[in-house]
């Protein structure tokens, strides 16, 4: 809660922040002259405050990373306490907060994943996971699915199976894309989940065989693809991928950057499918984004590859003390306040049922899918043809209208192409969820 004076000050600062932004800041993924970024200088819990000091319910968790909401007092305090004693350190040294963060992460992973290599975020976690897989196998190719996102750096964007890749595509980056399961928009003309699973696995097997298994280092999969649409694979599919990797000596990398750390209602999303990856890339929720941090969890056989031969890679800020202090405090708060359980319970009892009810009333909600605090609403012009409300990789006046309605209703949405995602903090309250979902219902039921 801000005082009137604080809010007044905030309003005063905003215009200057906006003007300086437009004069000097170059934004990600944007045509620089076509954007009008909202100023945000304050946030608390599930709310961010815009330039007019108007609260917006954060149904985006920013870029699906503020898993414990904004300004959690224990994490803010941990960052301050760490800043008092040690702000930064050469990663060659051991450090108390880095050691503790690694322990807390490893303890939540399956037994075989014991070592943590820290990075600054998700894309570099993916890059290092791929590098480890290549060095471990002596092979070069990486297989990843269409409808995926793995990060914005050179290798990670080439692995990405999404239109964001197109203008960056190197063509020769050693990446091969395949179709994953997505029954609602099936590439395999399947009409049941079982058919989709079987056909998607056959397709992956044929891709491996025709590419040459001896050339393939890794298969990388988001356990549930995030920005690409929150399509939940079947357990049989995920176990089938694991079995194919075992059969052909291929490293299975789970990209848990978005879906990990409680987002799906479990600590790690692959737990839903009872599979154990060889490498796990993580970031975002590990410390709720309060200080940049990511990493790779490494299984024992891959660790052994680098036990007596140097791993040729590193980062000045690997395991940064402020970021690791934030991770220790975040994971502790998530555990103490039962946030993962909250996400699982409210996802199943509130978000799912409410979204399905909205879908049944709205002419433009084609499908809703999700788990935990990780839901997508697939918007269409026609429920029979499933024509997306905006083209894949693009926007449309109708989608812009929907986004505008949601914001006008006091909710900050996560929008991607023809989809609105419901991805609030894991510790969102039931009342906040009901408030936000009511705004969505109005946005989807009025004619566009
Ligand atoms: N992998 C996945 C699944 C992601 O969702 C993202 C970011 O959204 C990344 C990787 C890249 O992470 P970062 O933006 O921290 O580099």
UniProtKB/TrEMBL annotation:
Keywords: Aminotransferase, Pyridoxal phosphate, Transferase. PROSITE patterns: AA_TRANSFER_CLASS_3 (PS00600). Gene3D superfamilies: Aspartate Aminotransferase, domain 1, Type I PLP-dependent aspartate aminotransferase-like (Major domain). InterPro entries: Aminotrans_3, Aminotrans_3_PPA_site, PyrdxlP-dep_Trfase, PyrdxlP-dep_Trfase_major, PyrdxlP-dep_Trfase_small. Its EC number is 2.6.1.62. One of its GO terms (molecular function) is pyridoxal phosphate binding. SUPFAM superfamilies: PLP-dependent transferases. The keyword Cell wall biogenesis/degradation does not apply. Signal peptide: none annotated. The keyword Transferase applies. CDD domains: OAT_like. Pfam families: Aminotran_3 (PF00202). Belongs to the class-III pyridoxal-phosphate-dependent aminotransferase family. PANTHER family: AMINOTRANSFERASE, AMINOTRANSFERASE CLASS-III. This is Adenosylmethionine-8-amino-7-oxononanoate aminotransferase. It comes from Brevibacterium yomogidense.
């Amino acid at each position: 809660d801000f005082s009137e004076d604080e809010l007044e000050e905030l309003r005063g600062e905003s215009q200057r922040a906006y003007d300086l932004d437009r004069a000097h800041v170059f934004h990600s993924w944007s045509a620089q002259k076509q954007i009008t970024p909202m100023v945000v200088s304050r946030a608390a819990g599930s709310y961010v405050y815009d330039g007019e000091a108007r609260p917006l319910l954060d149904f985006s968790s920013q870029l699906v990373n503020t898993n414990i909401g904004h300004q959690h007092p224990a994490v803010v305090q941990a960052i301050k306490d760490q800043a008092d004693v040690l702000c930064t350190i050469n990663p060659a040294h051991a450090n108390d907060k880095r050691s503790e963060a690694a322990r807390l992460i490893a303890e939540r992973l399956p037994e075989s994943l014991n070592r943590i290599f820290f990075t600054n975020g998700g894309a570099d976690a993916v890059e290092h996971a791929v590098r480890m897989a290549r060095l471990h196998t002596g092979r070069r190719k990486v297989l990843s699915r269409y409808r995926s996102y793995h990060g914005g750096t050179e290798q990670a964007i080439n692995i990405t199976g999404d239109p964001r890749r197109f203008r960056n595509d190197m063509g020769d980056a050693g990446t091969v894309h395949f179709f994953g399961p997505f029954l609602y928009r099936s590439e395999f003309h399947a009409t049941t989940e079982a058919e989709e699973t079987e056909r998607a696995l056959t397709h992956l097997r044929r891709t491996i065989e025709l590419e040459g298994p001896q050339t393939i280092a890794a298969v990388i999969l988001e356990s549930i693809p995030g920005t690409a649409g929150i399509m939940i694979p079947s357990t049989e599919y995920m176990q089938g991928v694991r079995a194919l990797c075992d059969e052909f000596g291929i490293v299975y990398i789970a990209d848990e950057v978005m879906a990990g750390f409680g987002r799906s209602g479990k600590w790690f999303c692959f737990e839903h499918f009872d599979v154990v990856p060889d490498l796990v890339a993580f970031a975002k929720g590990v410390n709720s984004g309060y200080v940049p941090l990511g990493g790779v969890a490494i299984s024992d056989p891959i660790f052994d590859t680098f036990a007596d031969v140097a791993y040729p890679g590193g980062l000045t800020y690997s395991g940064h003390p402020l970021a690791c202090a934030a991770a220790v405090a975040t994971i502790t708060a998530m555990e103490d306040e039962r946030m993962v359980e909250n996400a699982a319970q409210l996802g199943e009892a509130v978000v799912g049922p409410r979204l399905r009810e909205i879908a049944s009333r709205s002419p433009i909600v084609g499908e809703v899918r999700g788990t935990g605090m990780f839901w997508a609403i697939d918007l269409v012009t026609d429920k029979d043809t499933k024509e997306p409300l905006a083209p894949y990789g693009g926007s449309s006046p109708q989608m812009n209208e929907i986004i505008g309605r949601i914001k006008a209703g006091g909710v900050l949405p996560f929008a991607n192409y023809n989809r609105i995602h419901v991805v609030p903090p894991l510790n969102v309250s039931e009342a906040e969820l009901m408030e936000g979902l009511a705004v969505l219902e109005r946005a989807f039921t009025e004619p566009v």
